[in-house]
């Protein structure tokens, strides 16, 4: 068999401005870190780097949890790892569902033979503390799931008081921060979050492939008291916690760590530490305001009506009547600008603009809105 001819052609990747829901553009320092020489996955120099990553993640999540590390895999890996470890077959999971990620978690949970109860919130809105509290009373779940940054709708779900409600009922609070961490206020310990996971390819401006995760003491105790083994070896949090040096015991080989991605994550966390987490979040909030006023100037509206519920690092924009959203997206893509359409319940209704990390930048935002406005005018036949 001859070698595939395309493989022998020069390898060319275009440079695009990635202002969709992720991946975002990579930061220069992160790219440089990817080029560092490989080390073995148990070499002291590498385990020292893992330790740096662990403390950087504790800072990012604002937690003292010792069981804090990065799962090898994208955001879905963190999601599966959380569910597989925190719950056993037939236990009840409450899912707050206001977009695609609640649906996805419910799907994964059913595959694990969990009992899934759903608290539905309207698309573009969030569940109130009262509704959440009632659902916890009604279903007495072992774990309750909330997506902090619903990237399909652009909603930032409030979490104040959710941890207390959970803990009064012996429920663990599980939160998805894939699309929000670093770009919206989040304090795992203050909020009483028992398990939180994220991903590297959004605010962190690193390549996809690692899913930061953290388990509270209560979550760790529940895992230790399991009657059945975690159904996945790869996602077993106690095994992973050992490899990441989270317990006072010698590290064992579990799997070959994704060496270069761990370097990249370390460098991404250095960026957050240098800017300061609060400053980083504040920058996302300020630039979101610039985005809203730019939208207003061109006659577009954010899809999430309540400003308090808008995710600062990902904005959904309502598609005006008689416009084909895909036509506009294609027009922008021809200029190497990525803006995305809706997903799940927002499909065909919104555009999604991610302003993650280095892309939370005034000039980039104004460039994208200008291009979006021109693309809409061209799609509606109003172009000069
Ligand atoms: N949760 C949220 C909120 C997300 O936005 C995403 C990805 N867009 C995921 C989970 C899944 O992450 P991944 O695609 O990295 O597996």
UniProtKB/TrEMBL annotation:
<dbReference type="InterPro" id="IPR015421">
    <property type="entry name" value="PyrdxlP-dep_Trfase_major"/>
</dbReference>
<feature type="binding site">
    <location>
        <position position="352"/>
    </location>
    <ligand>
        <name>substrate</name>
    </ligand>
</feature>
<dbReference type="Pfam" id="PF00266">
    <property type="entry name" value="Aminotran_5"/>
</dbReference>
<protein>
    <recommendedName>
        <fullName>Alanine--glyoxylate aminotransferase</fullName>
        <ecNumber>2.6.1.44</ecNumber>
    </recommendedName>
</protein>
<feature type="domain" description="Aminotransferase class V">
    <location>
        <begin position="40"/>
        <end position="342"/>
    </location>
</feature>
<keyword id="KW-0808">Transferase</keyword>
<dbReference type="GO" id="GO:0008453">
    <property type="term" value="F:alanine-glyoxylate transaminase activity"/>
</dbReference>
<feature type="modified residue" description="N6-(pyridoxal phosphate)lysine">
    <location>
        <position position="202"/>
    </location>
</feature>
<dbReference type="GO" id="GO:0019265">
    <property type="term" value="P:glycine biosynthetic process, by transamination of glyoxylate"/>
</dbReference>
<comment type="similarity">
    <text>Belongs to the class-V pyridoxal-phosphate-dependent aminotransferase family.</text>
</comment>
<dbReference type="GO" id="GO:0004760">
    <property type="term" value="F:L-serine-pyruvate transaminase activity"/>
</dbReference>
<dbReference type="InterPro" id="IPR000192">
    <property type="entry name" value="Aminotrans_V_dom"/>
</dbReference>
<dbReference type="InterPro" id="IPR024169">
    <property type="entry name" value="SP_NH2Trfase/AEP_transaminase"/>
</dbReference>
<dbReference type="InterPro" id="IPR020578">
    <property type="entry name" value="Aminotrans_V_PyrdxlP_BS"/>
</dbReference>
<dbReference type="InterPro" id="IPR015424">
    <property type="entry name" value="PyrdxlP-dep_Trfase"/>
</dbReference>
<keyword id="KW-0663">Pyridoxal phosphate</keyword>
<dbReference type="InterPro" id="IPR015422">
    <property type="entry name" value="PyrdxlP-dep_Trfase_small"/>
</dbReference>
<keyword id="KW-0032">Aminotransferase</keyword>
<dbReference type="GO" id="GO:0005777">
    <property type="term" value="C:peroxisome"/>
</dbReference>
């Amino acid at each position: 068999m001859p070698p595939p001819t395309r493989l022998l052609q020069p390898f060319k990747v275009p440079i695009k401005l990635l202002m969709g829901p992720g991946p975002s553009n990579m930061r220069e320092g992160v790219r440089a870190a990817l080029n560092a020489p490989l080390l073995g996955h148990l070499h002291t120099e590498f385990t020292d780097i893992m330790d740096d990553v662990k403390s950087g993640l504790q800072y990012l999540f604002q937690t003292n949890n010792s069981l804090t590390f990065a799962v090898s895999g994208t955001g879905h890996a963190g999601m599966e790892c959380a569910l597989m470890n925190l719950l056993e077959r037939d236990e009840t999971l409450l899912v707050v569902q206001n977009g695609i990620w609640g649906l996805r978690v419910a799907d994964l949970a059913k595959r694990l033979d969990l009992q899934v109860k759903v608290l539905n919130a309207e698309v573009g809105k969030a569940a109130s503390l009262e509704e959440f509290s009632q659902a916890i009373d009604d279903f007495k779940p072992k774990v309750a799931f909330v997506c902090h940054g619903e990237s399909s709708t652009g909603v930032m779900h409030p979490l104040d008081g959710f941890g207390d409600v959970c803990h009064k009922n012996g429920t663990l609070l599980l939160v998805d921060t894939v699309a929000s961490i670093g770009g919206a206020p989040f304090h795992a310990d203050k909020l009483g979050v028992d398990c939180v996971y994220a991903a590297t390819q959004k605010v962190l401006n690193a390549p996809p492939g690692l899913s930061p995760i953290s388990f509270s003491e209560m979550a760790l105790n529940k895992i230790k008291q399991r009657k059945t083994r975690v159904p996945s070896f790869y996602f077993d949090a106690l095994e992973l916690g050992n490899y990441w040096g989270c317990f006072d015991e010698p590290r064992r080989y579990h799997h070959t760590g994704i060496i270069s991605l761990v370097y990249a994550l370390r460098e991404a966390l250095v960026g957050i530490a240098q800017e300061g987490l609060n400053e980083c979040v504040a920058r996302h909030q300020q630039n979101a305001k610039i985005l809203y006023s730019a939208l207003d100037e061109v006659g577009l509206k954010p899809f999430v009506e309540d400003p308090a519920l808008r995710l600062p690092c990902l904005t959904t924009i309502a598609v005006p009547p008689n416009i084909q959203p895909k036509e506009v997206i294609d027009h922008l893509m021809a200029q190497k600008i990525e803006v995305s359409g809706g997903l799940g319940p927002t499909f065909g209704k919104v555009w999604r603009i991610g302003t993650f990390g280095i892309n939370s930048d005034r000039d980039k935002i104004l460039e994208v809105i200008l291009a979006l406005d021109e693309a809409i005018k061209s799609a509606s036949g109003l172009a000069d």
